[in-house]
Amino acid sequence: MKRFRTLIAEDEPLAAEGLADWVRELPQLELAAVCADGDSALRTIRELQPELVLLDIQMPGRTGLEVLRALADDECQPAVIFTTAYDEHALTAFELHAVDYLLKPFAQERFNEAVGHALSRLAAGEGAPLLPALESAARPDDDEPLLRLLVRDGQRIVPLLVEEIEYLRSDTKYTAIASRGRNYLVRLPIASFEKRLDARRFLKVNRSCLINLDYVEAMTPDEGSQYVIRLRDGTSVTASREVSKQLRSQIL
Fold first, then answer.
1. Taking the domains of the chain in order of start, what are their residue ranges?
2. In whole angstroms, what separates CA 234 from the centre of its chain?
3. What is the pTM of this model?
């Protein structure tokens, strides 16, 4: 059985020790080195050329992101799994073709899952880069049309295709995104998404809700002639009077 050389870059001794123990428990992995800062990590990666790197983002010297950028033109292109306590770097991590993004504290089961993703690609000979760039993920200050979003699901970062979003509902600070039977809460107001979603597909039915018309099952007027929109998952949303009027004008 082929074993993949694995390097750990982690400046917290206890975290590094825990990762090393988990690596040693997996027969597919061979622990090549443990580095405590970004500069030594970059130097050791170039020297040992491991196939897999477990890379912390916040480290003394170079950050994990800077290490990966420095390797961009090198012959050594390891599969990289980021390990970090901060989720705000997820988009950059995936743009740099990271395999996965583990948010601390994470369980061994989640670690094994991420390693499994990396090994399946490495065993197939695909190597890095392992993920396409998510160049159109949501950014509040960007005017480009959205193609996909990056959302947090517990300790994971999940990419969602926009066409798979059923609806978005929000208060002043947070937006709940419904997709594939799940709801994801993001720390952005619904206004951050409204102008970047395709108006031919998404309709803002009231001040706090955008729906994907592809997931509408039926629209029924209530006693006040406002349309109650029923979605495929059973959710009902009442359209505002103005939107209800627009909808009536489009009935054939």
1. 4-123, 148-249
2. 27
3. 0.55
